[in-house]
Amino acid sequence: MAVLASGRGSNLQALLDAISAGTLDAGVVGVFSDRVGAPALARARAVGISAHALSPRDYPSRDAFDAALFDAVDTVAPDLIICAGYMRLLGAAVVAPRSARMINIHPSLLPDFKGLRTHRQALAAGASRHGASVHFVTAALDGGPVISQVPVPVLPGDDETSLSARVLEREHPLLVETVRLLAQRRISLGDDGVLLDGRSLAGPLQL
Ligand code: GAR
């Protein structure tokens, strides 16, 4: 796997921990970021994984940045590309050829609350349930076919901090379990959406 991450890297760490515990039969071959100081890069380097950051400011356009980023990703020839807290929109030119092997974890029950500050969005909407989703990446913002979800209750007195912490705790196993299914080649992207063992999913897997 190649992992794309912009910040803290706790989802990357969950993957690394599962790999080192022997519960995920996969490997991270490179970590890539749009932020030079992203803690995710240090997490990778700490276990000897190559980590690269490119600064969008050094490129004349989003497409030029995306192209350079994926030139770097291609050098490690990943089977899967995992967006784990990667916070920049990716353009169609880099996404379309890779959709079937690129996933993203998003902190909401998609299609609810796309975009940023999802916990704040959920609280403002008065939602009683929130959660996280893993989906194949398309050029539509948080819009690709959803593979798996985990619901999390919104509790009285919740604020953004408490709700995001409760969701994050469930994101980690959700991502690891979904990557496990992909690594086992049980999940794939068909013409009409997500396939599990070659059959269309009726709805997202509840993991
Ligand atoms: C996670 O909550 C992830 O779902 C979210 O950013 C956080 C990254 O945390 N991703 C998005 O909002 C993408 N739209 P991490 O860096 O500790 O894994």
TrEMBL record:
GO cellular component, one term: cytosol
GO biological process: 'de novo' IMP biosynthetic process
Residues the record lists as binding (6R)-10-formyltetrahydrofolate: 62, 87-90, 104
GO molecular function, one term: phosphoribosylglycinamide formyltransferase activity
Enzyme class: transferase
Similarity comment: Belongs to the GART family.
Pathway(s) served: Purine metabolism; IMP biosynthesis via de novo pathway; N(2)-formyl-N(1)-(5-phospho-D-ribosyl)glycinamide from N(1)-(5-phospho-D-ribosyl)glycinamide (10-formyl THF route): step 1/1
Name of the encoding gene: purN
This protein's name: Phosphoribosylglycinamide formyltransferase
Keyword annotations from UniProtKB, A to Z: Purine biosynthesis, Transferase
CDD domains in the cross-refs: FMT_core_GART (cd08645)
Naturally occurring in which organism (per UniProt): Luteimonas yindakuii
Active site: 106
Alphabetical list of InterPro entries matching this protein: Formyl_transf_N, Formyl_transf_N_sf, GART, GART_AS
NCBIfam families in the record: PurN
Assigned EC number: 2.1.2.2
Entry function: Catalyzes the transfer of a formyl group from 10-formyltetrahydrofolate to 5-phospho-ribosyl-glycinamide (GAR), producing 5-phospho-ribosyl-N-formylglycinamide (FGAR) and tetrahydrofolate.
Positions of the record's site feature: Raises pKa of active site His: 142
Listed SUPFAM superfamilies: Formyltransferase
Gene3D superfamilies hit by this protein: Formyl transferase, N-terminal domain
Amino-acid positions noted as binding N(1)-(5-phospho-beta-D-ribosyl)glycinamide in the UniProt annotation, renumbered to this chain: 9-11
PROSITE patterns: GART
Domain Formyl transferase N-terminal: 2-179
Catalysis: reaction(s): N(1)-(5-phospho-beta-D-ribosyl)glycinamide + (6R)-10-formyltetrahydrofolate = N(2)-formyl-N(1)-(5-phospho-beta-D-ribosyl)glycinamide + (6S)-5,6,7,8-tetrahydrofolate + H(+)
Coiled coil location: none
